[in-house]
Amino acid sequence: MATEIKLPRLGQGMESGTIVKWLKSEGESVEKGEPLYELDTDKVTQEVEADASGVLLKIAIQEGEVPVGQTVAVIGEQGEDVVLEATASGPEEEQQTEGSRGPARDDERERGRQASAEATPAPSGNGAGTRTDGRIKASPLARRIARERGIDLAQLRGTGPEGRIVAEDVERAEAAPAPTPTAAAAPMGDPEVVPLTSVRKTIARRLTEAWTVPVFQLTIDVEMGRAVALREQLVERAGDGAKPTLSDVLTKISASALMKHRTVNAHFGEEGITRFPSANVGIAVAAPQGLVVPVIQRAEVLTIQEIANVRSELVGRARDNKLQRGDLDGGTFTISNLGMFGVAQFIAVLNPPQAAILAVGSVEERPVARGGEIVARPMMTLTLTCDHRTVDGADGARFLEDVKAFLEEPGLAL
Amino acid sequence: MREDSDVFLMGEDIAEMGGSMGVTQGLLDEFGPERVRNTPISEAGIVGAGIGAAMQGMRPVVEIMYEDFLTLSAEQIVNQAAKHRYMSGGQLKVPLTIRTQGGAGWSPGAQHAQQLEAWFVHIPGLKVVFPSTPTDVRGLLWTAIHDDNPVLVFEHRLLYPVKEEVPDELEPIPFGQARTVREGEDVTVIATGPMVHRSVEAAVEAEKNGVSVEIVDPRSLQPLDEEALVASVKKTNRCVVTHEAVTRMGFGAEVASVIQYQAFDWLDAPIERVGAKFAPLAFAPVMEQFIVPNSEDVLAAIYRTVGRDGN
């Protein structure tokens, strides 16, 4: 008996995934639990295991975006016949038996069917959620506006409940008309359009969301002599472990300060502000596929060496695009360090619902006044971005004051 | 009553006791036992006597202690009061006002807490009003008494303590005129009775989250100010309909139908309905609260219309 392999829901809120490649080919035998294909979701790329044993009889979707629950392959016994239901091309027989309907709706159905047929093989995923059954889901208002302004709903992507196209989507489409091909006007070579990956889309969506949050920034200069010396000692003693970096020291220091300032170690939500008993510190990592923020859980109970080990493992997985969803969940605070690029200071965009994010600049010798003299000291500038709904200015300032004190005298963090 | 000696009251315990909810307190002293009359416990008799007096030219105001007991006078209301003017070719008039109260929220139990206004909106020949504020009660009651047709005035037990400044001059409120309780841009909440107040709470909360809510109270359910409701929805493009009565076959079903038909091309989301769960009302306060809609239910519906989950 053949088993249809359907796209699983791998986490809350997952509506679709993009099949990147198959690790088995048709005709190959597969054991239950063996990796079957690679799937790109909005958070991570991961291998999906076969949920049945047998022969991979048919790969229904070679690659591209697939809604959760759709059949992507069939596993069964050698020689078994495979009958796949038409999943994406539209239930045409069903439509004939449904009886007559107005010509306008027939036209629209036809358009929807064509659009879905066009959309299926292309992994663009654009608008896929709006026409899973060949019908375009749009609100009456959206339909009226589209009709009046001559906008083709099939070209739009719905952002309403269950992917419904709502008025805002139509208005947005009109405001930003689809780029018309203007090859003749590009004398220096054609501009390259890089299709949005799931990760890129998530970055775009989340950071745009973050932009709506009322934030303020606090900046402080820290003398880094002792922190740098501490790090050097730790590197000497690292042995087989990962070499601790200044970021690891910062993670530990921040975690200690967060435990003292719970208002900053918080999430904002409509029902209230959640304060966390542990500091789960996210570290912004520039992975090849884009920005990801793996989380070091319970950093306040880890030693700097332990933090370095965890961080090294997470960053390695991020670079190899092998992060699991669990690696990214539960962050209560984020650190973004661009010091290694020589950036002196910058402002990080909040990572909602977290209350704050710390932007770390480079350590560099700067002239500072000490006891009436100008002296050169290793200095670093920290900029804390706070969600003002959760954190007031003084709360953020007190937190930052302690981070500075702990970095200048790491013993205080104990 | 001071203006018109044809106006008189009948009901259970309305005279010396001043009504079980105290609504008629003091009226016996001023107008005497001829015009403020206690009746036996016979709801059919109360309404029947009222119909007779009305057809003879009086303007009786009768009280049914709980709207649940309207069931006992349904024959008189539905088959007699609503029909005489039509069946007599206009020779008879029934200028009768039937006041009643009901509603949950204080654990009166399954037989004393229902909201049955929708039953009577279904009967041609009756007018039905459901005021939610002191000003509206006064203005609508005045209009009910002066109307030449039978009118049911539904009051809600929990709204008796509502206080507000009312104008010195009585301002009659014509039937079929909705009141915009609050102006907003993103979604219209059409609410009656106690849900008006609960919707205001929800609107204040939604506002904090950047959702601007308009609230419209139809006040009179029959006749209904369709124009005002439709105009509001055409402005906001989204609609929540709410009442304390059971959702199934409730008055909101009629409102939703009016809106979807007259404002179909203006709707950007399905019309949401918020009402009581389909269950007899429980005595146990916690169970009663579970069944009856509250401001959070309205808020959740508001968020659904704008495609947010509230977080």
Structure description:
- The complex is a heterodimer of chains A (414) and B (311).
- Chain A is of the alpha+beta class.
- Chain A has three domains: 3-76, OB fold (Dihydrolipoamide Acetyltransferase, E2P), CATH 2.40.50; 92-175, Irregular (Dihydrolipoamide Transferase); 200-413, Chloramphenicol Acetyltransferase, CATH 3.30.559.
- Chain A contains ten helices and 19 strands.
- In chain A, strands 9, 12, 15, 16, 17, 18 and 19 form a seven-stranded mixed beta sheet that branches.
- In chain A, helix 3 runs parallel beside helix 4 (167-175) and helix 7 (246-260) packs across helix 8 (304-319).
- The model of chain A is unreliable at 86-106, 111-132 and 181-186 (pLDDT under 50).
- By secondary structure, chain B is α/β, with parallel strands linked by helices.
- Chain B has two domains: 7-159, Thiamin diphosphate (ThDP)-binding fold, Pyr/PP domains (Rossmann fold); 179-305, Rossmann fold (3-Layer(aba) Sandwich), CATH 3.40.50.
- Chain B is built from eleven helices and twelve strands.
- Chain B has helices at residues 27-31, 43-55, 74-81, 84-87, 117-121, 134-146, 194-208, 226-236, 251-262, 285-291, 295-305, and strands spanning 7-11, 36-38, 59-64, 97-102, 127-129, 151-156, 179-182, 187-191, 213-217, 220-222, 239-246, 272-276.
- In chain B, the strands form two sheets. Chain B has a seven-stranded mixed beta sheet with strand order 2-1-3-4-6-5-10, with helices on both faces. A five-stranded mixed beta sheet of chain B has the order 7-9-8-11-12, with helices on both faces.
- In chain B, helix 8 crosses helix 9.
- Chain B is globular and about 60 Å long.
- The mean pLDDT of chain B is 95.
- Classes of the chains: A alpha+beta (414), B alpha/beta (311).
- The A-B interface holds A 139-144, 159-161, 166-168, 269-271 and B 209, 237, 264-269, 304, 307, 310-311.
